[in-house]
Amino acid sequence: MIRNTIIRHYSSITATPVISSTVLLARNPVITRDLPAFEKSYYKYQNELWKRLMWTFPKWFYYRGGTLGDHRFKELNKPPVYNNPTMEFTDGRPEIRQSRDRRFKQELRLPKTYKQAEDGSEIVDEYSSDSLSRKINPNSRVTQADEKNDTTSLERKLSRSLYLVISEDNKTWTFPNFAVSQEHEIPLHKVAEDGIYNLGGQGLNYYNVSSKPCHVISSSDNNEFFIKSQIVSGQFKPASSTVKFMWLAKEELPKYLNNDYYNEIQHLLNDI
Amino acid sequence: MNRTRFFSTVSRLNRTGYSTVEPVHHLVPINKAALRPGLQELLLPKDDIRSPGYKPTNIGQDRVRDYYDAHLKSNLMLQLYIHGEETTDGNKHRSWGTDSPYKLYRKMRKPKGLSRATKDIKPIAPKNIPELTGININLYNREALEDSWLNISSRLQIAQITNVKPKRIFNKSNIVQWKCREGKPCGCKVHLTGEDMHQFLSTLTELVLPRIRTFQGISKKSGDHNGNISFGLSPEDIKFFPEIENFQELFPNLFGFHITLQTSARTDEQARLLLSSLGFPFH
Question: Does ipTM come in above 0.90?
């Protein structure tokens, strides 16, 4: 069932053209993309500029005078230096409006919903683990699979698209490719679907983006159509132990795929 | 220079204040005071750094934009592609005929079957993949017809949710039974684009809509045949916006509003495909 694309692609046997369906099974990114250093500094600059030009925080609306919230807010935010008319200020006279020095950006410290230590870290007590008001700690962007470099795991490279490649002899790696039988007229996407389920078990939940192929590589003896599909949940578990598989990002693929073949299809793969 | 026809040259020459500047007669009324050089910078858009009201727009990573550009665009292109498709003409306004001068200058006849014209549907290509172009929020506040101070509440609510200053809307007609008076303010509207739009979209699809118990999805019947889908939220649903939920005592009066999702899709089916991949369910 699995055909060796490279050998077929460069074979010189002239027979009736065979039609085959190749599945580009992708796992979409789970988290936001990693920003390049330039983009990161650009956003940081724009963000600081935005904060500098920001209107004064309407404290009188969100923390009304005399309330408990107002008390907590005042504890955290000490008023700026008073514009004393009798004093001389060496680095410019403060311009105070609504207890903000308008010469600088306004730095706010809002009361937290959890108990805080002096250094800003959360004080953990026995009730805080399941409390709704606990501090939200985001998970790490780097997973265990990344540290172990486990290429068979779906939890690696969370910010990138991963593509399924398989191998029978552990040497030549290809995308899953299935021949379309000449007798039974089964459509390309159906062939791809049945092939993936036979190869990777029923514990896989995936869908074809479209029944239309997104690319074709034509040679004298073969027409290889590409079906784009995405994994939603589950795991790819090969039925036979001889089949090896990997989930690889775009820049890792040229190491395993044939060079000409990769150049032919690289525009189909996502950079993110 | 044009020759000016004078009926009496003598009187004109004797006049003291004679201007040599030809008067300019505009076909459209122009407020010349607003053309002063000193006011020119006020005409600049707010995202131009020369504008006095400059506000930076690209202040952070926009994940909805990233998702659309990297994944959705190519998928939509593949899904909507039809081999050998040709341009389908839309339902246009029709001519009354040319056999009479009365028909020639008459207002165009309405489109066949529909009250509104539809656009031509062109074959899908990289340049016309459906895209979310804007979100329009319209809040008609009926209660404000009696208590006009509720207009402020409704504008504050929308500003709190969307991060954009809303515009006031006014009644257009007199309807005595509904206490409508022409020119009376009755709610607000806001048009979201760019980062604010994506922020509102992800709040709506991830935090608000999943928590509405009765919400099954946007109606499949919704749409204006041109790729714009509308739906409404009731005052009870507004409570789920985190900006409102955390300050409930500040917003004692909440008002429902209508949301129109404007897309560049040519048909409602295409728009639904785009919106469902952005996280809106349909039923």
Answer: no
